[in-house]
Amino acid sequence: MDRILIGSFLILSVLLAACSDSDDNEQRVDQAPSNPYAGFSSALYGDTANWLCHPALSDSDNVCASNLDTTRVFADGSTEIELHNRTANPEVDCFYVYPTVSGDPDTNSDLEQGPEEIFTTLNQAARYSRFCRMFAPVYRQATLAAIVDGTFAEAGAVAYADVLDSFKHYMGNENNGRGVILIGHSQGAGHLRRLVADTVERDEYLLKHLISAHLIGSAVRTPEGADIGGDFQQVSVCRMADQTGCVINYSIYRESDPELTAGLAVFGTPSNGLTAVCTNPAALAGGQASFRNYFPAGGLPGVIGSLIAERVDGPYADPASAPPITTPFYSMPDFISGRCILDENGISYLQATANGDASDPRADDFNGEFTIFPGWGLHLVDITLLMGDLVELGSAQSTAWLQDQ
Description:
Blueprint (H helix, E strand, L loop, with lengths): L1 H29 L20 E3 L16 E4 L5 E4 L9 E6 L17 H10 L7 E6 L6 H6 L2 H24 L4 E6 L1 H12 L5 H5 L1 E7 L4 E2 L13 E2 L8 E3 L3 E3 L3 H4 L13 E2 L12 E2 L4 E2 L5 H6 L21 E3 L4 E7 L5 E7 L32 H18 L1
Parallel strand pairs: 2-15, 4-5, 4-6, 6-7, 7-10, 9-10, 11-17
Antiparallel strand pairs: 1-5, 2-3, 8-12, 13-16, 14-15, 16-17
Helix pairs in contact: 4-5
């Protein structure tokens, strides 16, 4: 009888343990992180009126659906057309915030899509449409006027509120569990840096769905030699192409930039004992590498055209005798290369070198410096010079993220 009781007790114990395991499994499922913005609706971003890029926009209204075909101009003067192909049904998203481009007279821009916003989004973000669904909000950014009159911080608070509002609406209504790459330049990168630090890193769901953050032209800082700490506590610096949940960050100066040499650099500067990050998308492990550049073939709109110093007129040394560029973009393979530098002033930057040859038909230089704002280096073309590398990297990171799901 005792043996029967003992046997019954053992069977009962096994059954109770199985039930306990089942309960634990159900509890673990219940504890999976949930979208913090489920059900959120924005008054500004609830329809497509204030989006430059959005899947619900018609192709004619969607900046990221524009023609991105490119003429590749080689050192011997020969050319080939590179067609831009988009994935029919992208499995991941990209969320882009453009830099300071508005020429509006007030310290905050309006919500109109001006030629500067359209041009910049086309040049800096649209090419990610090769593998991404694209989202790019119009926001009331701090304008060039705010830089000039010293009210950039106050105007920036208004701008950030719009960026956060648009991101919350995207996460709550469009994301649906998809991975997302955050892309920003200059002011846009600064807003996204704050978004990552204040919002993404503090929420398990958001952090899990961050494929990477491509934050260019506004420093993310870490302790020198470290890949984490400082501005971000959980998002590390990207060091491999298949690494996810990490950040790409750099600012570009030309080799032998006299203002950089004089210690007048505005970007890549140290602060509070922290060093600016430099990650070269063309060579994450370090060293010199060629940049896959994409330059606009047409004129520059409005305020942008007035800001950029012209060293050359297109990809040819003698444009008048060269064949016309018939695509919206051109590229110059193996023409610009660079590597990350940490100089004696503590400036951390991506150094760019033009590999010109006076004996070939290509131009021996490229445009990028400001006509004003000393110490800003090649800030205007931070993304232009490495557009192809950034897209290739984003694609690899997206593939790695999807494989981990």
